[in-house]
Every structure is written in structure tokens, then in C-alpha cells.
Amino acid sequence: xxxxxxxxxxxxxxxxxxxxxxxxxxxxxxxxxxxxxxxxxxxxxxxxxxxxxxxxxxxxxxxxxxxxxxxxxxxxxxxxxxxxxxxxxxxxxxxxxxxxxxxxxxxxxxxxxxxxxxxxxxxxxxxxxxxxxxxxxxxxxxxxxxxxxxxxxxxxxxxxxxxxxxxxxxxxxxxxxxxxxxxxxxxxxxxxxxxxxxxxxxxxxxxxxxxxxxxxxxxxxxxxxxxxxxxxxxxxxxxxxxxxxxxxxxxxxxxxxxxxxxxxxxxxxxxxxxxxxxxxxxxxxxxxxxxxxxxxxxxxxxxxxxxx
Length: 308
Hints:
Order of helices and strands: EHHHEHHHEHHHHH
Structural class: mainly alpha
Helix content: over 70%
């Protein structure tokens, strides 16, 4: 009988990533690097523009700046490691590094789920309670809501990531993913993980399913209010803004639900890597484009910044 040995004694993990497809690694490196640079430039652009232009000092752009900062941190917590692994044969990450990566990925992902709910509430108040908007969404409340988002994400992650690493991760130390994520790490366990799977489902329901229901409820109310509007210009503006928000919601929540609302199984790992690649690489790079491409406020702020 083989002696079980905890992976922590080895001091490192091997992130298998896309090593099953070595012919794709060079192409993936180029594509992911491009998306990462788009994420950095696009989100920094939103943060700087919202800070410099006084006309963008509104709740909507305050929360959008928080979302952009979140996306910057979220991608940076995993993508540089992925690029290094794709570039060379060395695909290791230290045990401590894996713990830190798992903590921040969970924390930032959870924070984004809650922040998207807050952003949908902001749009609900703006459309359905316009006369009370400045009272209901005053700066102090906005800062408190943002703080709640960040605290809830980092507190929840501390509990969940600790619970994950308490499980004895025995045998081999090969993580079948490109970053340290809960489902992939649980597959390394040599103990009963039913409690962890149940915890994962409960946490996913709390921070993925319930937020999605709240967001859809907000936009359901917004849709009813919009349909009663007589102004064509007002309809176009509301649908433009809220449509952008909904697109961001679906691009983030649907891939996350595919990963976290099912038990970790070996058969789904290969598919899960590409799904995870979507919400860690693609979605954060698209958010700035979705919010700014047809946004007159942002285009106007850019023109003023450039002196036109």
C-alpha cells in the first residue's frame, strides 16, 4: 500500500494547463497576451478618464471604475503565470503561490458578482426612480456599497480557500488547469470531498445564482419602466446603457456557472479550461469596449481630455 503524502510537503504544484495540446501553446501565448494588453489598456483608460473628467463623477462611473480595477486585478492574479507557463517548459507554482492565487481569484470573482448587483441597482434607481436618484445614490452610500462588495468578496474567499486547503491534497501534485482553482484542486484530494463539493455549491448559489436573480429582477423592472416611456431618445439611451450592463453580466455569469455549479469531474476538466479562459481572459478585455464603444459620455470626456 502506497503511503499518502500531502502535496504541501513537496512545496510546489505543476499547472498542466494546455500541455495536452503543445501545438496550441505558442498561438495561445500570442492571443492571451493580446487580450491581456487590451484588458490593461482598456480598464486603465476607464479608470483614468472617470477620475479626470468631472462630468463622469457619477455613481455609474464610480462603480464602473471599481469594475475596471477589479478586472485589472483579476486578470493579473492568473494571466502572467499562464503566459510564463505557455512560454517555457517550466509549469510550476509554489504551494504558497497557489494559495495566494486561489485566494485572490476567489476574492475578486466574488467581489465582481456582488458589484454587478450593485450596478444593476444603480441602473434600476436611475430609470425607475429618477426623481429620487440623487438622494438614493448619494456619494456616501455609493462608497459604502463598494466597500461592502470588496469586504464580502475577500471575507468569503478567506473562509472558502482555507476550507479548500485544509483538505489533504495527496499523491501527485499536478493541477489539471492553468491556474489554482477550487474544482481542479479538489481533484487532487485523497479524502472525502463531499463536504467541499456541498460548500462549493452553497457558495456558488449565494454569490452566483442569487446575484444573477437579483440582477435579472432589476432589469425586468427597468424593462417595464422603459416600455412606458414616450421619448424615443430616452428609450435608446436607457436600452444602450442597460444593454451594455446585461451583456457584461451574461459574459461573466454564464461561464462561471458552468464551472462552479457542477461537481468537479475529470471528464469536464478539458472543457472547463477553455471556459475558465473565457471569463479570466476574454470577458475582462471586452468590458471596456462594451461600456465605451457606444457611450456618448465617455466619447465626450475623451474629446474634452484631448482638447477637441
